[in-house]
Design goal:
Length: 160
């Protein structure tokens, strides 16, 4: 009964819940615990507005928040991260290679890790700041490995 009630409450939000988060008609216990762990981690970092995850935009997502979200085992959180990044890229009319996505159409761990490393090297505090960078500002990441498909899409030829 408890899982049904929680599932109903979560389904009543704007969150896009991946099929993999379900066991039968309910969100799995594993998924709910992973989601709770992520929310707890975000709160412990002093991040307010965490319950507004479904409305997150790129300007909200700091590198610290992105690290916490990408370390999450929650499939719902992974979908939020992917949709947040996709929406920001779509608004800027940037198309990312299909290689950046897994079979569930979420960004792969490797892509998100590469993006975080690039943002750290560039000393960018938020994803929003990345959009303000010029190609000449990116010399420090030209030789990084692995390379980020998102960075490549934003700055074509950066790794050439």
């Amino acid at each position: 009964i408890v899982y049904r009630l929680i599932t109903t409450q979560i389904e009543g939000t704007d969150l896009i819940i991946p099929d993999e988060a379900y066991v039968g008609d309910d969100i799995s216990k594993t998924e709910l615990l992973a989601l709770a762990d992520t929310l707890t981690e975000l709160e412990s970092e002093g991040i307010d507005d965490v319950l507004e995850l479904s409305g997150v935009d790129a300007s909200y997502v700091s590198v610290d928040v992105l690290e916490i979200l990408t370390e999450s085992e929650s499939k719902i959180v992974r979908r939020i991260v992917t949709k947040t990044l996709d929406n920001a890229l779509d608004e800027a009319t940037i198309s990312v290679s299909d290689d950046a996505y897994d079979t569930n159409d979420d960004f792969t761990d490797e892509e998100l890790d590469a993006l975080i490393v690039a943002l750290g090297i560039l000393e960018v505090d938020s994803l929003d700041e990345l959009f303000d960078k010029e190609p000449g500002d990116l010399n420090d990441i030209k030789n990084m490995d692995p390379k980020s498909y998102i960075i490549e899409a934003m700055f074509p030829g950066i790794y050439s």
